[in-house]
Input
Amino acid sequence: MIKLTIDGKTVEVQEGTTVLQAAEEAGLYIPTLCNHPQVKPYGGCRLCMVDIEGARTLQPSCTLPATDGMVVHTATEKVLNARKFVLTLIFSERNHFCMYCPVSDGDCELQNRAYDENMTHWDLQPNWQPFEVDASHDFIILDNNRCILCRRCTRACDELVGNFTLGFEERGAESLLVADYNVPLGESSCISCGTCGQICPTGSLIDRQSAYQGKETEVEQNIGVCIECSVGCQRNVLTRDNRLVRLEGDWDADLNHGLLCDKGRFLPLEDDRSRLMTPLVRKDGQLKAATWEQALEAIASKLNNGKGLAALASTRLPAEDLVLFKSIFSDGLDAELVTSLEEGKATASLASLAEKIGKPFEASLEVLKDTDAVLVIELDLVDEHQVPGFFIKRQIPHGTQMIVADNQTNKLAARAKVRLDLNAGEEGKFFESLLQAIDKETEDENLNQAVKILKLANNPCIVYGKTLAENADAKTLQTMLDIGQKLDAALIGVKGEANSMAAAQLGLEASFETNGYEAAFIALGDDKPSQKLVKRLEEIPFVVVQAAYMSQLTGNADVVLPVTMWAEQPGSYLSLDGRLQTIGKALDAPEGIITNYESLLKIADVLSIEPDTDWQTTLSKRVPTAQIQEG
Amino acid sequence: MTKPKVASDWLCGCAGCHMSFLDIDERILQLVELVDLRATPITDLKEPDEDGVVVGILEGGIANTHNEHVAIRMRERCKILVALGDCAVFGGVPAMRNFFGEEAALKRAYIDAESNDSEVIIPTNPELAEMTRVRAVNEVVKVDLHIPGCPPHADVIFYALAELAQGRIPEIKDDKLHWH
Output
């Protein structure tokens, strides 16, 4: 331990702690701009300068390691003058006109720091050299006029996301924030994760969707979980006057610590589908507006027994809803088919392996953060489940070696150390030869190299996608398990939608073949129905759809029940690695719209079925692929 | 005791800061008990007294040689010079023409503007002041007190003037400090 004195207060800290961190631990405030807890200290802005007894000049506290016996002063006149001077230089370096702009008030860290120092003015004029504004990107606007060269964005792009898109061109006052080799951001390698905009302390990187739509003091914040895939990133939903303003990664989240991908951050706000505002019932061939009573009556007359009945639920629905759905259609009505819209493709084979061996075999996503060798099988983490992909990509410059086994279209493979060809359907053969290569060198040099990397690694990891889960038979998965054991590698299966694993726990994994069903019930929620589903349901004479948005599916249905979308309903989600997380509702539903859960309760009631509301018990009855824990 | 003399003038601004000054409403009666309000754009006297005033207030940035002249004259004739509002403190909205230059600004206004007729010319009368880069007042003369705001709130103006009238230097900070 190290003992130092800050402003007369004795502070004891671990070796390696910076003076800034020591001050924070002691509850003392030092203003910062370029510093951000999620990226490495950089010492770029010099706002955090402190006076160290015995030091010749002021020192930046964010990069200065605390040493034993150090005496620090954070608010001497010299320090306070230096702060004002630093801010004056920053203001004059570019073109900051926040002083004429009331919409920035409180949201700009540069402005806030200057207010903190009671700056009424500065003695240097702005730069007056206009910088071009890059508005080529769909979601992010890059404005170098407001840049303070703090490099939070470039550090986030490199250290957190591993995408290495943002960088700086030129030096000193000429420094220019650019994408790739100075190409428009919209044409660059940017993957639109938006982390740069979230971390920018000024308005240099702003998002088109929410800029000027509400200051931090005017919006409500609702920490929840992203349901765009099964990773379960914690997400802050910002609303104003019951309207979505912005989605942000939660900096305090254990797993994603602020990160989101484009699907979780920007795309939900682009959703322009029309809402269903009233129940609909088909009458004389026409879908007509009806009351809930009329709609439920129509349902009760046709769905009163399970014979010839197919029931399917979206895996975007909360776990509570899925349990209730199952209890109505499986336990209550004994329907011929009760499954999820994913039909268990991403989970069924894995779930039966877990049942066979009697215990979970998959690891937490946390292991990806410090794996040194990772084998990614039939999974393109650039397109889907992106945040775990960030964990891998960002470590590649630090020595983590990635092996990608997939067909030629995998975009992740561009960063791979070794690429192994694997076409869908050949999984069995692939694992057999991998197992052999572990025991003895083979003729395939690529495979030998991959095995060598995995064998030498301290924390090897195998990550696999839906294609593998869908194609591999029990024997193949057993081989994969053996390989994992031999290499002492963690196994992670990314599954599919937000509640894929919850659906697997409930055994909602039968495949949907249309052979003579008389009626169907689709709990669609806010999911987008696939063309295949629409096509298949056309053959069924009576279809009930419970949905938030109008679609071809609701257009073809016989009864439509209007329900809430993701932000309007509370619920629980089981992530791919077993973290059970709960979301509150962030928006009030439109008048007359009830939640998916409430709608299912109404159906249970009209069919006189005693619903299962003990969802947590039901959810953990089956052996899970990954340990279920409250997260 | 004689009341301290106060004078004000406006440069390249929009008069909004003086309007905000008038927004102190009936408090102006308290103020004139404390100060001798001399030349201002809203009184009849147009030039600050030659024998000097205690407080001189300038609204607006410095955009031409005439503004320079007025600022220098006010500086010479007052003890405490106050820059009132964002244009005087930072240059303000008019300073955005610095991005383009004076020539381009004249061309846009007198030639390219959609409302101009076909016989357009840029005025060149030698009596006209010469345009310059738009500057904050403190780039041209020394300023003793900066009151930012677009415009500064009437309460802040009243507070500042009341303090100055009683021989104190007002502290523009915390809730009194706003740039917009």
Remarks:
- The radius of gyration of chain A is 28 Å.
- The mean pLDDT of chain A is 95.
- Chain A touches chain B through 18 residues (CB under 8 Å).
- Residues 77-93 of chain A form the longest helix (17 residues).
